[in-house]
C-alpha cells in the first residue's frame, strides 16, 4: 500500500511538472530552473542522478512485475475465485499506475536532457558568436593594414619608376619633419594663448565677484537708509501728534483760566 501511494504521488508530481512544461507562459522560468538544476542539483555523475536512475529502475521492475501478474491470471483457463479476481484487478491497477509513472518519468528525463543540451548549445553559440565578431574585427584590421601596405608599396614603386628612390623618400621625410616642427610650434603658441585666456578669465571672474560683493554692500546700505528714513517719518508723525496734544492742552488750560477768572477776582 505504501509503495502504491508513493507511486501515485510520484505520478501526480510528474503530471504537474508536465503541465508546467507544456504551458507557454513560463518558458524563461523553466529554462532558468533547468539550468540551476543541471549545474547545482543534478550535475553529471552525481548522487542525485544515481538516485533518479535507481527510482527509474524500481518503477520499471514494479511495472514488469505487475504485467507478469496480470498476464498470469488473465491467461489462465481456470475459473478465478473472487480473491484472485480482486488480485488481478489490483495488479492491473498497479500496472497502469506504474506504467504511466514510468512513461512520464522517461519522458521528463528526455525533456530535461534535451533542455540541458539546448542550454549548453546556446552558451556555445554565444561564445562562438563572440569569437566570430572578434575574428571579423581582426580580419577588418588586417584588411586595413593590407591596404596601407599596398599604398606604401605603390608609393615605393612610383619612386623607383621616377628614378629618385631613396633621395625622394628622404626629402619627403624631411618635409614631414618640418611640418611636424611647425605643428609643434603652433601647438605651443596655442597652449600659451589658452593659458593667457584662462588667466584673463580668472581675473575677470575675481573682478566680477568683487563687483557682486560691492553691489551687495550697496544694497545693504540702501536698505539701512530706507529703514532710517522710515523711522524718521515715524518720529515726525509722533512729534506732530504730540504738538497737537500740547496745543489742545494749552487751549483747555486757557479755557479753565477764563472760567475761573471771576472766581479769583471775587476771592481777592
TrEMBL record:
Keyword annotations: Coiled coil, Endoplasmic reticulum, ER-Golgi transport, Membrane, Protein transport, Transmembrane, Transmembrane helix, Transport
Broad class of where this protein is predominantly found: endoplasmic reticulum
A single BP term in Gene Ontology: intracellular protein transport
Topology versus the membrane: Multi-pass membrane protein
Membrane among keywords: yes
Known function: May play a role in anterograde transport of membrane proteins from the endoplasmic reticulum to the Golgi.
Transmembrane domains' residue ranges: 7-26, 46-65, 95-112
Domain BAP29/BAP31 transmembrane per the UniProt entry, residue ranges: 5-127
Protein name according to UniProt: Endoplasmic reticulum transmembrane protein
Regions annotated as coiled coil: 225-252
Location(s), subcellular: Endoplasmic reticulum membrane; Membrane
GO cellular component, one term: endoplasmic reticulum membrane
Family: Belongs to the BCAP29/BCAP31 family.
InterPro entries found in the cross-reference section: BAP29/BAP31, BAP29/BAP31_N
Matching Gene3D superfamilies: 1.10.287.1490
Amino acid at each position: 500500500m505504501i509503495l502504491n501511494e508513493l507511486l501515485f504521488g510520484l505520478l501526480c508530481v510528474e503530471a504537474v511538472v508536465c503541465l508546467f512544461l507544456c504551458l507557454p507562459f513560463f518558458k524563461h522560468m523553466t529554462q532558468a530552473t533547468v539550468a540551476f538544476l543541471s549545474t547545482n542539483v543534478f550535475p553529471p555523475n552525481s548522487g542525485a542522478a544515481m538516485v533518479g536512475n535507481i527510482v527509474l529502475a524500481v518503477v520499471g521492475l514494479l511495472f514488469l512485475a505487475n504485467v507478469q501478474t496480470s498476464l498470469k491470471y488473465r491467461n489462465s483457463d481456470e475459473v478465478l475465485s473472487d480473491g484472485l479476481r480482486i488480485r488481478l484487478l489490483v495488479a492491473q491497477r498497479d500496472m497502469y499506475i506504474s506504467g504511466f509513472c514510468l512513461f512520464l518519468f522517461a519522458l521528463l528525463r528526455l525533456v530535461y536532457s534535451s533542455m540541458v543540451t539546448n542550454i549548453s548549445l546556446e552558451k556555445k553559440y554565444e561564445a562562438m558568436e563572440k569569437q566570430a565578431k572578434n575574428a571579423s574585427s581582426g580580419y577588418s584590421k588586417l584588411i586595413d593594414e593590407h591596404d596601407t601596405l599596398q599604398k606604401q608599396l605603390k608609393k615605393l614603386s612610383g619612386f623607383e619608376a621616377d628614378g629618385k628612390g631613396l633621395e625622394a623618400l628622404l626629402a619627403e621625410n624631411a618635409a614631414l619633419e618640418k611640418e611636424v616642427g611647425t605643428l609643434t610650434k603652433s601647438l605651443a603658441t596655442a597652449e600659451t594663448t589658452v593659458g593667457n585666456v584662462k588667466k584673463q578669465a580668472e581675473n575677470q571672474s575675481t573682478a566680477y565677484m568683487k563687483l557682486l560683493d560691492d553691489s551687495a554692500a550697496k544694497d545693504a546700505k540702501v536698505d539701512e537708509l530706507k529703514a532710517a528714513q522710515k523711522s524718521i517719518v515715524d518720529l515726525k508723525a509722533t512729534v506732530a501728534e504730540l504738538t497737537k496734544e500740547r496745543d489742545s492742552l494749552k487751549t483747555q488750560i486757557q479755557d479753565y483760566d477764563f472760567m475761573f477768572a471771576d472766581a479769583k477776582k471775587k476771592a481777592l
